[in-house]
Amino acid sequence: MKFSWKNILLWSLPILVTIFFVWQGLLVPNSNEAGKNVASSRMTYGRFLEYLDMGWIKKVDLYDGGHTAIVEAVGPDLGNRIQRIRVELPTLGQELIPRLKQANIDLDAHPINNNSAIWNILGNLVFPILLVGGLALLFRRSNNGAGGPGQARSFGRSKANIQMEAKTGVQFDDVAGVDEAKEEFQEVVTFLKRPELFTDVGARVPKGVLLVGPPGTGKTLLAKAIAGEAGVPFFSISGSEFVEMFVGVGASRVRDLFKQAKANAPCIIFIDEIDAVGRQRGTGIGGGNDEREQTLNQLLTEMDGFEGNTGIIVIAATNRADILDAALLRPGRFDRQITVDVPDYKGRLAILKVHSSNKKLADDVSLEAISRRTPGFSGADLANLMNEAAILAARRYKEAISISEVDVAIDRVVAGMEGTPLVDNKSKRLIAYHEVGHAIVGSLLRHHDKVQKVTLIPRGQARGLTWFMPSEDQTLISRSQILARIVGALGGRAAEDVVFGDSEVTTGAGNDLQQVASMARQMVTRFGMSQIGPLSLESQSTDPFLGRSMMSGSDYSDGVATDIDKQVQTIVEECYKEAVKIIKNNRVIIDYLVDLLIEKETIEGDELQKIIQNYTAIPV
């Protein structure tokens, strides 16, 4: 903490207030000075006159302007020993003084102490002065932006993280699997370092680069790499940090951000998750969020408005490019849109080499084999995979990561944490038939993906799993491949139906049936693979905005909708018949595999193929 007189005063204010109250209660003198001479007992004024007449009163001390007296008396009723007694004197008791003098009583009068009034005045002033001074200091700190609950003047300031010399610790060599994006960014770095190479031939520096891709593919990591390579001031902020509940704050922060960037040009501004502020305007029922839209308008103006922003390159990242405003995506604002997609085999291998460079691997671990087993994994998934394998190796007290830890880590990343093994009962056998049904149908279909593993070990919400290894190229899928996947997904329900009967089928196929319905519907409505004809009746993704989706309605008539439902039903029925046929024709293999699976709980894909080949031929 930074120590200053302001901080000392703020911390000492509660202590001073506490001291004040203690002082008021203990140290400020009481106006009644008789409190200093507390008597052991009290006496009425009448009894006091009786004692006076009997000669038992020896001494009288008057206090409080003659209203209170402390008397010393001695007599038989008092045990024949001197006692100090307090007496409240009446207001009209001035005739008492002559009687005391006449009886030769030792009399002493104590004047009222005027210091008590001064103490009261000082005591009543100290606390208000401390309170007002402390509040003034708090307001001053909040207005200066030093912290506190106020910060009224700092609302409109940008919250961007500013690095004049970007030291992110990430270089282009640390980013793997996105070679095309790296090439694009290397040009941007060259623009910043040696702009004359491009300006001499009439080229201008791109104003914005938009990174688009699924989560975990390395968009933010690329931004850190370009910051580390360029060596220019780097401003990083999230899109959600622009918008506040107060009107005008977001636009003010955008202005302040670009004002600082212009003062430090050439520089880079990185906006992560720009979809939080860059959504399409005028969406939703009754319009959009006015505050967010005004923030977007200011961002559009700053990126390519009347004044321009020479020397500033804006890099933004999002995984929802479909909802961004069209004005934000046009050239002049984001000149380049770079897709950062899930890496291929070579990309995964390069990423695995980066994330395993600081880990000890056993001799049986092959990064090439891991790369082949992980199609569809993003860079973040692969990093998590190697980290989970390292954690598991440490938990097992191993000096290096073996293939066993890698296998378990892959299973955990794909399906979740391992659960409690199933008890050998009817439920376990039913699950075994279900999973073997998937495996047999998938293995005996020509266009189906290869079986990787069948297991009865629960993971996540699944009580058993059958994993298939998809082919590397998933950009184009044929009609026969889609139908094979539908038949394979129905293999579990078909096995339950054939082995246990229609009345014993379970809810275990719920997720399978959802996938079946989705694939069959896409065949009809998107890919034109039905008797309706080569028509695309639905878009790839529904409108993300509620208002537009409600107003746009359907693109086809009710009659066509009925035909779509009939075609989907026909496709699913034919595929289910095919799955049941395969199950019935291979019942002997299925029974053997179920017994083996219950015994071992896991059967690898290669072992499964060898067993099936002993009974029937596997199509190539």
What does this structure look like?
This protein has 620 residues and is α/β, with parallel strands linked by helices. It folds into five domains: 5-28 and 116-154; 33-112, Signal recognition particle alu RNA binding heterodimer, srp9/1, CATH 3.30.720.210; 161-339, P-loop containing nucleotide triphosphate hydrolases (Rossmann fold, 3-Layer(aba) Sandwich), CATH 3.40.50; 345-414, Helicase, Ruva Protein, domain 3 (Orthogonal Bundle); 426-613, Peptidase M41 (Methane Monooxygenase Hydroxylase, Chain G, domain 1, Up-down Bundle), CATH 1.20.58. Helices cover 47% and strands 11% of the residues. It has 22 helices and 14 strands. The chain has a six-stranded mixed beta sheet. A five-stranded mixed beta sheet has the order 1-4-3-2-5. The protein has a three-stranded antiparallel beta sheet with strand order 13-12-14. The radius of gyration is 43 Å and the shape is elongated.
